Amino acid sequence: MEWTREKRYLPYSKWDALTLLKLQSQAARSEYQLQYHIRPMSGLLNDPNGFSYFNGKWQVFYQSYPFGAVHGLKSWVHLESPDLVHWQNLGQAVLPDCDLDSHGAYSGSAKAIGDKLFLMYTGNVRDENWVRHSYQVGAFMDQEGNVEKIKEPLIKAPDHVTEHFRDPQILEHDGKYYAILGAQDAETKSGHISLYRAEKIEGPWEDLGYVDLPAMGYMVECPNLVFVDGKPVFIFCPQGLDKKVTDYQNVYPNMYWVGESFDFDTGHFETKQKAPINLDEGFDVYASQAFNAPDGSAYVVSWVGLPDMTYPTDEEGWANCFSQVKKLSLKHGHLLQKPVKAMKSLRSDKKPFAGHHLMDLGNQTEIKLDIHRGQEGTLTLAADEAGEHGLKLHFKTGNGASLTVDRGEAGEAVNPEYGTARSISLPENEDLSLRIYLDHSLFEIFIDGGREVITGRYFAPKGQIFAKMSKGVSYKGKSWKLKNM
Predict the structure, then answer these.
(1) Which H or E run includes 421?
(2) Rounded CA gap, 113 and 139, in Å?
(3) Which residues contact 150 (CB under 8 A, 6 or more apart)?
(4) For residue range 246-305, what is the model confidence (pLDDT) as tens digits?
């Protein structure tokens, strides 16, 4: 199919049901399909939206274009969960069906207010000259999932920003409502986080200017403010950031900045951190959304996919997925990301990991390894039957300790122009703790209790389900096959 502009923005009512059913069937039969991660029924899955707690369950939405693995007319698909692991897909919740979101319901957030969930998102509108106009749209969702949109925009783009003004996060502080948004300054064409305040959720919303952070590249997308162990943490995606500020290899990074305090009314962010830090050291994490649960705990979920990139399943009519939900904490000013407790409920068929010879681990696997200090070797995952090719984890736990994850030999190439390997430094002469999750075409590697996380997609041929450790390496390990969902 040739994806013209007209085709991408064709109203949903113009598509026939048979086309959608065929796409859903094709995605379900894919040999790369994930089992225990959120993935699209069909078409494109994009940013996490509306991550929240409401009506006794966890809520999340994903930005969706259901008719192909391309960016077209976006809607929101709704999921809910009792435990942040088992998610029920409730179907489309926010459709691009009004004047304020005629060309797409873009990213946003949610907050429980009374017996309803308030949604705030960016409505994408194009005029007859295809000039973009961004509106911040409000809507209420009741306990039955019915959504009623507010007819007037909550926030219109101010004169000092360009058309790139989007991705609102709703916050509440001292009885008032606040919103932060990604913005591009009209004069400098640089990226900032805008701050707004309102006495009532429906507005009026007052522009408080930019958050007191340095300009970051040419645009900031998907900004989040979350409090972790009492400290304010900004999580955001700076586009075009100078790599002299913070090194990164992906087309766009997802980063965080830990502060000591944040003044909601002035935007002043007090911090000891000199530069933003990569949230994930892998290949494909972007547009992460974090929020504070009612008990104050902080959680984050990420889009595993990148803007302007392609993936092998695009040809099958579906693309991308979410990471598992991770709980956040702080240690020495650094974010720790850990799997939520309910991930253990997926475990079955526990066995010792003794991978000096090929081990069949299945397509959905959790592995826990403690590699002793002073060693060097390679763990090959998703290996072929000879154990020569696959997802390679090269480790060194002595002087110059490091871990490198290389997907260059793990099946089909995935955006190799941005490199096939990612490396991190490790504490020297210490044991290395790894907790690895595989979900057929997704890997998530938690290093030293979540001090670092390396996430990415891989597309190994069907049947490559083996693992192998270099001979002579001393380690302790165990593994579980994980249940399909």
Answers:
(1) strand 421-425
(2) 12
(3) 137, 138, 139, 140, 202
(4) 999 999 999 999 999 999 999 999 999 999 999 999 999 999 999 999 999 999 999 999
Give CA separation, 270 vs 177, 179, 233, 336, in Å: 21, 19, 11, 21
Nearest in space to 452 (alpha carbons), one of 345, 367, 331, 368: 331
- Tell me the two tokens of residue 243: 């790599």
- Reported as a single tens digit per residue, the pLDDT across 108-155 is 999 999 999 999 999 999 999 999 999 999 999 999 999 999 999 999
Tokens of residue 3, six digits: 């994806």
Candidate list 16, 47, 212, 360, residue with the active-site label:
47
CA-wise closest residue to 356 among 254, 276, 202, 471: 471
pLDDT value for 464: 64
- Whether 280 is catalytic is no
Average pLDDT, the chain: 96
CB atoms near residue 36 (< 10 Å): 20
Distance CA 223, CA 255 (A): 10
CB 122 within 8 A of CB 168: yes
